[in-house]
Amino acid sequence: MRRLGTIILLFFTIHLFAQKHPIAYAPKSDFQLIQKELPQNRLLRQSFNEIKTSVDEWVGKDIDVPIPKDPAGGYTHEKHKANYQLMFNSGLLYQITGEVKYALLVKTILLKYAKLNPTLVKHPEATSTSPGRIFWQALNDANWLVYTGLAYDCIVDYLTPAEKKQIVEGAFNPEVNYFTHDMKDWFNLIHNHAVWACAGVGIVGIATDNKEAIQMALYGSNKDGKAGLFAQLKGLFSPDGYYTEGPYYTRYAILPFYLFANALNNTQPELHIFSERNSILKKALDGALQQTNLNGGFYTYNDALKDKTYITSEMVSAINIAWQVYGENPAYLPIAKVQNKVLLSKGGIAIANALIKQKDAIAMFPYKSISFTDGAKGDEGGVSVMRSGKENQLTSLIFKYSSHGLSHGHFDKLNINLFDEGNEILQDYGAVRFIGIEQKWGGRYLTENKTYAHQTIAHNTIVVDEKSHFNGSEEESSKYHPNELFTSLGNNKVQVVSVIDTNAYKDIQLHRSIYMIQLSESSKPLIVDLFRTKGAEAHQYDLPYQYTGDFIAASFKYKSFNNSQKTLGTKNGYQHIWKEAEAVSSTPISQFTFLNHSRYYTISSLTEDSTHLFFTRVGANDPNFNLRRYAGFIIRKQAISPTFLNVIELHGNFNANMELSTNAYPSVKGMELLQNDDDFSIAKIKMDNKFLVIIQYNKASTPQTKHSVNIQGKSIEFQGNYTVIWDDKVL
Amino acid sequence: MRRLGTIILLFFTIHLFAQKHPIAYAPKSDFQLIQKELPQNRLLRQSFNEIKTSVDEWVGKDIDVPIPKDPAGGYTHEKHKANYQLMFNSGLLYQITGEVKYALLVKTILLKYAKLNPTLVKHPEATSTSPGRIFWQALNDANWLVYTGLAYDCIVDYLTPAEKKQIVEGAFNPEVNYFTHDMKDWFNLIHNHAVWACAGVGIVGIATDNKEAIQMALYGSNKDGKAGLFAQLKGLFSPDGYYTEGPYYTRYAILPFYLFANALNNTQPELHIFSERNSILKKALDGALQQTNLNGGFYTYNDALKDKTYITSEMVSAINIAWQVYGENPAYLPIAKVQNKVLLSKGGIAIANALIKQKDAIAMFPYKSISFTDGAKGDEGGVSVMRSGKENQLTSLIFKYSSHGLSHGHFDKLNINLFDEGNEILQDYGAVRFIGIEQKWGGRYLTENKTYAHQTIAHNTIVVDEKSHFNGSEEESSKYHPNELFTSLGNNKVQVVSVIDTNAYKDIQLHRSIYMIQLSESSKPLIVDLFRTKGAEAHQYDLPYQYTGDFIAASFKYKSFNNSQKTLGTKNGYQHIWKEAEAVSSTPISQFTFLNHSRYYTISSLTEDSTHLFFTRVGANDPNFNLRRYAGFIIRKQAISPTFLNVIELHGNFNANMELSTNAYPSVKGMELLQNDDDFSIAKIKMDNKFLVIIQYNKASTPQTKHSVNIQGKSIEFQGNYTVIWDDKVL
Fold first, then answer.
1. Residues in chain A closer than 8 A to B622 (CB atoms)
2. For domain A240-366, which architecture applies?
């Protein structure tokens, strides 16, 4: 009698907000559609079979739900991770196949969590300020909530009210309460961790018909709109969809955004969540894809690992959901083809069919030159990608002048990176971390991430007095951002981005202008890097180029450290760098050529003052062998306001199988700065027998404003901030 | 009148030995066949079009035949190289298309050489003992003769007798005479240079109907059979077809062998040149292919560059000719598919057709475990390749115990290299050379090739007292070779090769046994490396493992050289190695794990005596940045007759996109040498909770001879040289 009463009461309680389930991941009708499509849709079937194989292995077995103990990479961490993936997949299979064994599997595991979770306290391996309970960090608990919520939603119709109650109260509530109460400051952050947390709480809310949880997920634990999904959509993206932590973390944050938004779209279409902020979630996805290399790897500025590409499940999910909610988009097809996997969803069906239909017509992802602003209002600097070349010949230069980018940001104002034909030419170290490898401190970020990878010297931008920008203070760095002076991108012969920073160093102005110049239609672009500085006193300025490739030749004499090697410095990253060779240059220009795959690259540097040059290697003070032994070329000037003029040439070809080199030597034969003051910089570069002249107005100018300079007795007029003259003709 | 007389006279002279031309590369009928096949054979057409495009660019232009001046990579070198390729290709096009412009192009260039060649003396950049005239080394002149001879042969029917005379006397005779007279000691060598020289002289002989030249090419300049093609076929290959310089140079030498043999086959089929020595040229080709990595790269022992694969034109030619003369061979198809190019020949037509026919049925090249003997009689040691795993899962271990291998040989007796899934795991440095790159000393072998790459410490074998084998003397090394004690290869659970060397060091015996053990069908093989030594006095023994991958973990404490680094030694290659860290091990075993691509590799080492361990990095004393910064792990023992017992485990998986590791820890938990004397070595290895016991009889034994050992009170009997017991059962 008592039991019956409980059931009735519960039914009533639940009924108040009850949705039809499944609904969070997809409604019943979508699952039925998948079942119908499976026989004739190869890629869908393949994706389905992958999941089925992974789940069938566990059907009927006793699934361990261990007491949390290990950090990432360790048994309990990996088991709990495997468990939520297993539950999610098994939930999908239940809905698609109707086979009860899959629902039973999910239920059995959930009931175990219902017993475990109420007993949990702070994870024994928790080292961060946001400790988890099931996992060492709360972030992973949020991952658990997202997938477990989706899984529960899939099997709601299979559960008895008593089971529902047991799971909601035992498995979910302790986690939801932990997030929204104990950890509420963290839950209310505008940060990727909180995006996961809100998605987890929100999806569980939808799955369990918990309106309160949904509201907190949408508007923060105080339901005041200062936190939660809407605030995140507003605060984490610029109006262009640039995510402030950079593309590597866009990839990571985009998944909970899309999964939660998708669930909301299914349950509260009136929120028009995918249209929010002019479809900011679409812009975020497209922007992240524009920030990938030809191999699909995300550009590795800020904390980022080099081997993450757009084949990750996060990007599969985002692209498949985007296809469904924003409509078909052929630009995604080349990526979907490489992913070779679709979601078991309406979007997945559509992509799989589109791939078959357009089989031979799939071109490359439409990479283009593009500028992103940073900051919620788009007024905190940004990132530009300058591009040239077709298909696999693509050259991409990334110029970074964004705001700090939260805790994963690096001290790298005005940094550049260069990719060519899919190869990293001037690199960003990325992050020092071996994710998912327990022996490497449980897969966490390693010490050297802060002591090296975050530091300015690990990048391709100026370091003054061997100190990192903002003296390495995240707090300081977060207050400022550089400002664009002028920009011109697109299909022009001259693309340029010119940016000024006045805060990275006190009383010093850094002004970098990157020109990407197409001298002829068939040639590789020429990159001219004009890096001006302005200060009141003499300082030591280092401009490093982290090149990748084999050292081929240097035009200057240098001294090698043959029998013993010392570090380049003692702190701010310098302690991690070996000095392999050094030179005092006295010639007007210094040239260094290296080979990467089949192409030569030469950096020609104006070194008329007594510049010092260094060839370096990462790896000092690295007792745990965490650092990769990357090479560097550093140009050092000791002066009041030195200017660095460098030309980066992409030239020639080397064919190992043919044993053949063409154009192995640079074309730059001379460089001069004819004028260089607050008003104008005029660079004259001799390329074989022709001259390239770049005239730049160093202050703000409208495109219409006329300027006039005098070059070697000849008066030249131009409009706007620059003009580039090649062989006596304006480009 | 005078002119007519000359013509008649010449006609008469030539007629005496005259062949129908073309004949050297292929007879007229073959070219006609190609013309017929072109429209319907895609790959043939593509290969034809590539050649046509490259030639058409020059038709009607004035071709420069410059006065020789530059080394490899420089203008004159590359131009002369381009010229002989252009002439050869244009000659083929003339025969296939019948278009006279192609013949004219060849003639015009040949007439220029007819003027240039008589004026030539030793090349100004010649640095070797075999100087060239057109090029800096005679070898390149030989290349020129081969291709130019073939080109001439293609256009003979287009030339007037006067033109023929002019070309023969001006372009060819000076080179032929230079080789067979001035350079006759070199011409008569049994060495790859002489193979090219004889092919050049022989092909020119065939093309110009010069019987004398053909005879010298076949039997040496003295026509006594001590040199020339037949002597080379006899002296350069073992009965298995192993070419004494190793696979990288097999690739290089095989082309002149095949081109010349093909020409002879067309003109003197009665020589049965392709059947010579039981079809030694087929064995050579197949043997070289067995010595490639999954990516087609030739194993890089001895002087070898890592980026040479079987897509080189040499291998296209050899495979296409082999198909024609030895009959179709499906094993070549996967390679031909990657080459994506065929010869314009009957063989090329056949391969292109076979590729179409077998489109979906093309498996991998049939890699297998294989032993090669070295030496003309097959009694000078050899090379074994032990293999396990299917398709892309292939694991290959190369065990080298050959003779020195002429001037390109390294001091690396009993060296091993390990490849897994196409990745180099324990590597051979190969050669220090940037071929085809002028800035790197004209593409020659660099100083560090001798001072580092040739030295023993650059390999994975024992170095005693920091001296290379044979004290680095090629002359000494060439006198000796190690001897196989016992071998068992094939589809067995236990594969083993055991070899003894008694000459690399005076009064010291080195005895290495490599076991490749398949503990279960699905697992990766386990490699047990038992390296015994026997000497009369105490010495320092170093066993390096040149690993490639990221350092993951070491089970022992070590001291890192954090702020300053010194070299490991001062000579014999040690001066090029930085000491990054060192350890004195006191535990019974020391384990080191590294990650390469998606797999973990652990070296577990028995270090019960006070072994020293080093982590090292190549790159010291390298003022021209010629060396790659490779890592090493060195095990050092100071003793009278130390034994090195190492187990190399290939384990687990790492997935960066999934952030997931499985089996990241080694299974080896303990190691013991229960017995180790002149008679028996008994190694007991604890793998998780099971034991692997290897019992080895250390002297010669017939497979039938019974042996008996006592292991911890239990008597065990076995036959032959070894038995391997896993979990109490004989494997």
1. 560, 562
2. Alpha/alpha barrel (1.50)
Any idea where the domains of chain A sit in the sequence?
1-235, 240-366, 370-730
Tell if the CB–CB gap between A657 and B551 is shorter than 8 Å. no
Q: What's the pLDDT band for B360 if we cut at 50, 70, 90?
A: low
- ipTM of predicted complex: 0.92
| Residue B643: pLDDT over 50 | yes
Pairing relationship of beta strands B564-566 and B599-606 according to DSSP bridges: unpaired
Q: Do domains B240-366 and B370-730 have the same CATH topology?
A: no
Instruction: Give the CATH number of domain B370-730; options: 3.40.50.300, 2.160.20.10, 2.70.98.70, 2.60.40.1270.
Output: 2.70.98.70
Give the residue carrying structure tokens 């990007």. Answer: A315
CA distances from B294 to B250, B366, B390, B395, B665 (A): 18, 11, 11, 10, 27
Decide: A459 and A427 in contact? Cβ < 8 Å.
no
Contact assignment for A629 to B621 by CB distance below 8 Å: no
User: Are A657 and B308 inside 8 Å of each other by CB?
Assistant: yes
Q: Hey, of A599, A625, A628, A662, which one would you mutate to test binding to chain B, going by the most B CBs within 10 A of its CB?
A: A625
In percent, how much of chain A has pLDDT > 70? 97
Top CATH class of B1-235 equals: mainly alpha
Instruction: List alpha helices for B466-561, DSSP H.
Output: 474-477
Nearest alpha-carbon partner for A266 in A30, A14, A15? A30
Q: What is the pLDDT of residue B17?
A: 55
* pLDDT score of B136 more than 50: yes
Question: What is the mean predicted confidence (pLDDT) over B304-328?
Answer: 96
Among candidates A438, A440, A659 on the partner chain, residue whose Cβ is nearest the Cβ of B436 = A659
Token pair of A289 as six digits: 């894809």
Q: Is the peptide bond before A588 cis (omega within 30 degrees of 0)?
A: no
| pTM, entire model | 0.93
Instruction: Identify which of A308, A565, A575 has the shortest CB distance to residue B565.
Output: A565
Confidence (pLDDT) at A298: 97
Using CA coordinates, name the residue in chain A closest to B558.
Answer: A623
Comparing alpha-carbon positions, the chain A residue that sits nearest to B75 is A662
Give the whole-angstrom CA distance, residue A198 versus residue A256. 8
Subunit contact A552:B654, Cβ cutoff 8 A:
no
Extract the tokens encoding B5: 């007389």
The reported pLDDT for the residue numbered A13 is 43
Give residue-wise pLDDT tens across range A199-257: 999 999 999 999 999 999 999 999 999 999 999 999 999 999 999 999 999 999 999 99
Tokens, residue B29? 């009928």
| pLDDT value of residue B74 | 85
Would you call A236 helix, strand, or coil by DSSP? coil
Mutation choice for A interface testing from B81, B85, B437, B563 by most A CBs within 10 A: B437
- Containing A309, the helix (H) or strand (E) segment is none
Q: How far is A617 from chain B (nearest CA, A)?
A: 10
- Supply A463's token pair: 């370091």
**Closest residue in B to A559 (Cα–Cα):** B623
Length of chain A: 731
Alpha carbon B318 to its chain's center: 15
Provide the mean pLDDT of chain A: 95
What's the rounded Cα separation, in Å, for the pair A4 and A160?
A: 12
Question: Which pLDDT score, from 0 to 100, does residue A4 have?
Answer: 42
pLDDT tens-digit series, residues B229-247:
999 999 999 999 999 999 9
Q: Among A438, A593, A623, select the one facing B560 at the smallest CB separation.
A: A623
Query: How far A453 CA lies from chain B's nearest CA (Å)?
Result: 17
CA distance A329 to chain B (A): 24
Cβ of B73 within 8 Å of Cβ of A664? The answer is yes
HSE value, Cβ hemisphere, 13 Å, CA-based, for A85: 16
Q: Nearest CA to CA, how far is A340 from chain B (Å)?
A: 14
pLDDT beneath 50, residues of chain A: 1-16
